[in-house]
Amino acid sequence: HLGAYNCRTIAGTSQISQHGLGKAIDIAGVQLDDGTYWTIFDDWEHGVIDPEAPGGQWLQWFANQLYAQWIFNTILTPEYDAYHDDHLHCDLTPGEHEIH
Fold first, then answer.
1. Alpha-carbon distance 74 to 28, whole Å?
2. Of the candidates 58, 85, 69, which has an alpha carbon nearest to the alpha carbon of residue 2?
3. Is 45 exposed, middle or buried (0-12, 13-18, 19+ CB in 10 A)?
4. pLDDT, one tens digit for every residue, the chain (100 residues)
5. Which residues contact 43 (CB under 8 A, 6 or more apart)?
6. 65 dihedral zone (left: phi>0; alpha: psi -120 to 50; beta)
């Protein structure tokens, strides 16, 4: 991961980030039991609805599962903006349930 707890505000605002509340994590990559390792930066397929490469397919499936199973309330993918180009931002914002 790239980080979890970090007492700070949301960029460009005065609102405390979910990281600042200890309710967020930035996931940069995933290693599977067989040793396969995919990173958001290298393997996420930008702007693609149906990824073609195994890494892109798995990472999109993973992000969708975090959302569908309500593991996190908000998941920001590289599709959200350039600041999330190398990670999935996952948090527990109360009252939210969205994936971008």
1. 16
2. 85
3. middle
4. 888 888 888 888 999 999 999 999 999 999 999 999 999 999 999 999 999 999 999 999 999 999 999 999 999 999 999 989 999 999 999 888 988 8
5. 53, 55, 56, 59
6. alpha
Tokens of 92: 């527990």
Looking at residue 14, its amino acid is S
Residues with Cβ within 8 Å of residue 8, at least 6 apart in sequence: 16, 17, 19, 20
**What is the pTM assigned to this prediction?**
0.89
Write the DSSP assignment of 34-95 as a string of letters: TS-EEEHHHH--TT-SS--SHHHHHHHHHHHHHHHTTS-SEEE-TTT-GGGTT-EEEE--TT
CA–CA gap between residue 87 and residue 75 (Å, rounded): 10
